[in-house]
Design brief:
The chain has 323 residues and is of the alpha+beta class. It contains 7 helices and 18 strands. Helix 4 runs parallel beside helix 5. The radius of gyration is 25 Å and the shape is globular.
């Protein structure tokens, strides 16, 4: 009888020890997957700033040849960007390095610090440039500023080039960002503006194909003002063949009213979707599709004739993105 009691006591101790061991493993696993140990979402914003640069403007009834963007427009724009809280901000139509530094300084004064920047100077002489500001360091830069194409006997450059940077989101995760601003719909005597966009889109797609070939599964965002609607050839060309590994998904954001237009042209009183955030297959599973939105702050039309785009993603594929 004593032996049986000792046996039960010994057996019970083994069960207790095993239970405590399993409990410890459960708690450890829970801690490893707890929210505080999960990667934080990253917020991306893209915006055409509408002539954040010096140009000919009418000021107090007088034409000034080298006037900056009006202060009221900048104030509304900066307030809207700060409210959106981007970790990465990609912009079109900004001036030279002094204007980029001005925007960066104004954002910092409002509590949004984006210390890492890239600027790609346009080839068209209008000084409407591409830029990116980031909370994360830039570890690689590959701007495309010398790509050209022929229309008839005339050779043209991609007017605004391609902004191409890689960001280190953390020690193990890389994100590549391509900023674009295709030829505007403004007619010019040298060539057909729509044909110019088609040629630019073809060169952009070639650059994208080279990226995908050397970095399969890369985490990639392609953003900007494409100056065409989703059904047009340039947009379809940039996105690639549906179902292929190189295909880019259009996040198709809405504003808070459910509308998708991103640009208002006051001369024709028309609204159109000309601005895009596209993502690669490598990044798509990490994107919060519900977060994709079009910014609609009060007095949005004072800030720009375009509305900004915003979305979030949560970096997860750490081993795949290690370099």
């Amino acid at each position: 009888m004593r032996f049986r009691r000792r046996h039960r006591a010994h057996y019970g101790g083994q069960v207790t020890a095993a239970f405590l061991c399993l409990l410890g493993l459960f708690v450890s696993a829970k801690a490893q997957t707890s929210p505080q140990n999960s990667p934080d979402p990253v917020t991306f914003v893209a915006w055409n700033l509408k002539n954040y640069l010096a140009m000919e403007r009418r000021v107090d009834g007088e034409v000034v040849s080298d006037a900056p963007k009006p202060e009221k427009e900048i104030e509304v724009l900066v307030a809207a960007i700060v409210e959106a809280k981007p970790d990465i901000l990609g912009v079109c139509e900004i001036g030279d390095a002094a204007y980029l530094a001005d925007l960066q300084k104004r954002l910092k004064a409002k509590g949004l610090e984006l210390p890492h920047t890239e600027l790609v100077i346009s080839a068209d002489g209008w000084n409407r440039n591409l830029a990116l500001l980031s909370r994360f360091p830039i570890v690689s830069r590959d701007p495309q500023t010398d790509l050209t194409y022929l229309i008839g006997q005339t050779r043209f450059p991609i007017q605004r080039g391609i902004l191409d940077v890689t960001l280190a989101i953390n020690d193990s995760y890389r994100l590549r960002c391509l900023g674009l601003h295709l030829k505007s719909k403004r007619e010019i005597p040298e060539a057909d503006q729509a044909e110019m966009r088609r040629n630019e889109a073809h060169l952009i797609r070639e650059h994208l194909d080279s990226i995908m070939a050397t970095e399969p599964g890369t985490n990639l965002i392609v953003y900007g003002d494409f100056n065409d609607t989703p059904n047009e050839i340039p947009i379809r060309t940039i996105r690639g063949r549906f179902g292929s590994d190189d295909y880019l998904t259009d996040l198709r954001p809405n504003d808070r009213f459910g509308f998708r237009w991103t640009h208002y042209w006051s001369v024709a009183d028309t609204y159109a979707r000309l601005d895009y955030t596209l993502v690669s297959k490598g990044l798509l599973p990490e994107v919060d599709r519900d977060s994709a939105s079009i910014l609609h702050p009060e007095d949005w039309e004072t800030a720009s004739d375009h509305r900004g785009l915003r979305f979030q993603f949560t970096p997860k594929d750490l081993s795949k993105s290690k370099k």
